Amino acid sequence: MTQMETLIGRWEEIIKELSGLFEMRRGSVVEQFVETLRKDGTRTRRGPYALYSYKEKARTISQRLSDPELVETYRGQIQAFRRFQELVQEMVTLGERISEVAISDGREKKQSRSASKRTRK
Fold this sequence. Notes:
By secondary structure, this protein is an alpha+beta fold.
């Protein structure tokens, strides 16, 4: 198998994996604790509360998640988004490598054609 065939094979694998990613979202889910000061001066800590946060137009948007099943759903969607980002980065790298191999193969073909023209004369 040539280098180009290997690269294209990986490209197609990535496309297939990307086509299976549907539910995804940016951001993170963290556990938040709330400290309160009682009238007698003691502090109490309540929580953890699940908090979903993401950036939008340079602002952080946060939303408290009260349903434990929803927390797991969000975490799975966030993980899918992170996998999406990894795959896209790999595609960029692969695209660059494919481009370099194509240029290299093109140069080799030109050189072999010019060498064969010289031998015919």
